[in-house]
Amino acid sequence: MSYSDNAITKRLPNIEEVLHEMRMIPDYSPEDYLVHPKLGMIYSFVSGKWMLSNNPVGVGDKGYLLTKLRRKLDDGSYVSVPVYVHWAVFSAIYGRPINEIRHSGFNGELMEIDHIDRNVKNNNYENLRLVSSKENKENSSNRYWNKVRLSKELAAQIRDDFKSWTGTKLDFYKAKAAELNVTFRSVQNVVLSNTYKEITE
């Protein structure tokens, strides 16, 4: 079976089809959750579903996919823990708890996950690499200046797509920015006609 870089937009397999390919997430029960490394997604046995399969937008200004996993404590009770999907995938592949990996940098420096292809929705394990906070900031800075410039055709398409969008403006800006590899502000300016004013409706 082959997998798309953006599995969220494709048909997801039944868990029985890929159970042999799944990995457990350290610190979390395999009876509750497993990760599929190639899909870059978490399957929840608690809900019986692929997590975030209906949320391609993500959270925050960068659009990372964030969910909550329940973790069992020593006293038998459960606590709900916010977890970024890319960290869950990376932790499952390397077999170490997320917090341990995050604090594995030189002299205690916090480590971060870099998405190699710049698509933060693509959590395929081959697209993830562990970097220092400094390296990640440098990568992000370089990528900002390497963003593509919108053509008039793309700007017109953005406005057309926005007309049929049923979600919030904020979600549209984030989704389009990730899709076209442009900044959030670029999409917003096109929609609000702050740029490309010469394009007529």
UniProtKB/TrEMBL annotation:
<dbReference type="Pfam" id="PF13392">
    <property type="entry name" value="HNH_3"/>
</dbReference>
<protein>
    <recommendedName>
        <fullName>HNH nuclease domain-containing protein</fullName>
    </recommendedName>
</protein>
<feature type="domain" description="HNH nuclease">
    <location>
        <begin position="84"/>
        <end position="136"/>
    </location>
</feature>
<dbReference type="InterPro" id="IPR003615">
    <property type="entry name" value="HNH_nuc"/>
</dbReference>
<dbReference type="InterPro" id="IPR044925">
    <property type="entry name" value="His-Me_finger_sf"/>
</dbReference>
